[in-house]
What does this fold into?
Amino acid sequence: MNRLLSICTVLAVLAFASCGQDSKQMEAQVAKLAKLSELGTVEYVVSKVVKANDDATWFKFGDRKILFSCKANLKAGIDLSELAKDSVIVDYKQRAISLVLPKAKILSLNMKPDDIELVYEKTALTRFSYSNAERDMIMAQGEKDIKDKVPEMGILADAEKNAKFFLEAFFSQAGFSIIEIKFSKQ
Amino acid sequence: MKSIISRIVTIVILVVAGGLFLKFSNFDIAGLFKVKPIVIDKTANVVGEIRRLAEYATGTYYYNVVIKKSKEASLFGIKMPDNELVLVITGKVRAGFDLSKLQDQDIIADSVSITVRLPKVQILDVITNPSDFETFEESGKWSHEEVTGYKNEARATLEIEAINGGILEFAKKSGKENLTSFLQALGFKNVTILLTN
It folds into this structure.
């Protein structure tokens, strides 16, 4: 009777454990082409030190430290697909154009693998070294921090200034003599 | 005998009191044994370089690349199951025109007609960020340098897939359509967009 109970207990534990295993399926390779209409007018190369100290879990003995040095390329500009129909006013006789562009935004952020350098890593004897998943998770936090700090960088103001400069030159070449470019306040 | 009974009663009272405390105090005992997430320290973002651009992106291609790697493993000379690394990378390729290459003679206009010669369509960016990488399987030790090599492999695959998937043709067509309708909205009746091959 006792033996039967033990077998049942082991089976139940195994069944429970298998339910907890990673049940994710490999994602299918999906390709998708999509239209864009984005005028990128400025690129910032931002460098950052990303460092972490994994000592917050009380029952894990020993410390782990990691430090990366990385670069991210941020491109900003105008999404012309957001251009409203009534945002362009043209006076053909005067050869004048008035254009209200949407506000500048970040068009892309790119942290190339080659631009991420592992500078320092230290692991106590009682711990495992950082796994690839953990390293990516740490770098993803660095990526998010760069994205979050975009408003403080001045990149959007530069993007609008450059967009104005480029479009003024373009419209001038297209024959307009009075060119007014503004940016939407929304 | 009396002392044994009083001890049992004390234990029962303590267990019941402990149970009631856990039930009604919202004390999360499981939380005590949760692994705390690794949080990065606050550091500055330093703008190192600023470049003026005039890139007109007209097409994008999203794709998932799966990289599978394995290597032999052994423990004290005894062969062990292979170490495996499977990465799923969700990347994006942007294509379009570098309008900084436009020369004055590439835009010819009069009051009703305009002709614009666009530069050659090109891949503008292959974008893969740390948040785009998913480690689906990882056993054994994989160094940062090894994984960087595999990620670069994935980026190269992504670019090739985008080109084979027709991103350049798509961006060319989309750019021509976008620019034509934009210039028509400016009042030009005859719009000609020439594409450099």
